[in-house]
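## retry 2 of 3
previous attempt timed out at serialization; input unchanged, resubmitting
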Amino acid sequence: MKVKKSKAGEIDYILFYTIFLLVAIGVVMVYSASSYTALVNQASHDSTLFLKKQALCALIGALIMFFAIKIDYHIFRKWCGWIMLATFACLILVLIVGVEVKGAKRWIRIAGQQFQPSELAKYAIVIFLAVVIEKNINKISEPKFVIFRLLLISGLFSGLVLMEKNLSIASVILMVTLIILYVAGIPKKFFYTLLGCGAIFGGLGIALESYRLKRFLTFLHPFQDPSGDGYQLIQSFYALGAGGITGLGLGQSRQKTLYMPEPHNDFIFSIIGEELGLIGCIILIILFIVLIYRGILISMKAKDTLGSLVAIGITSVIAIQAIINIAVVTGSMPVTGVPLPFISYGGTSLIVNMGAMGVLLNISRQTK
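## retry succeeded, writing output
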């Protein structure tokens, strides 16, 4: 069924400003958290090294976001196959010629820059599921269709990401898949069965890798290994505790001075807590809640199934990653490498997330 384009064409400005607030906070905090590490550990001894890279990626991400806002999201019906093929090729390429860092191959080096295909894979799966479900919405209650048309492809992409030693992103892909299937209307008994199977496979993924099992056990008692696997989580506790209610002040973190390993990455939330205190953390969490709430509203008001499922998928990716990251930093779940969207240092993550926000804003232009 053809859908008329919205004449009003107004985006969700609450979501728009929330995104840019998060990006602005991210750029500032990346500089604050990384300045000492960049000055001492990097060959250039430039305290603004990570700031320059993150600011450049934020600018590129903004341009891509504005471009995505102008492009009708219904184009995914035509380009879904090519997007999946390109993402699949990139994931295979990582396993063959990927850059290995700390025993994990997750990046491809292109023209001197590193690109992480798993960041793209999360949204490729969202698009794939939305397009296929829309075309076959009458089959959504059939287990064969769900297993062999949807879960098989999602599982394949998740498996390739897992082969890169990236259980966290592989888990995000599967969790987003389950959310989209639930929203699409699969039978509840079938959904709970899939949920149980997912929990079993997740447990096996932890148990079969000694380093993951050790991380899980250390999370329960981090102070039993204070100089080993428990070190980073303990430093996070120190940072959050030192920040108190109002924080030590922007740029005044002590844990970033070579106590916290790579404080500008996955544990940047603890530096925010140390410098801006509980108040700063709550403000950041509120911004994520606003983003998630607006994303859900856009999904509910979308004029067709494609828009609704793409919107809920994109929103779920951000929500899951934010929840996992904050839970890890506060010691509520085992340590895993999930960046905080828009905040943690990482060019690929920032650019891809902002591009996805552009798609979400485009859907908001075409609501009922």
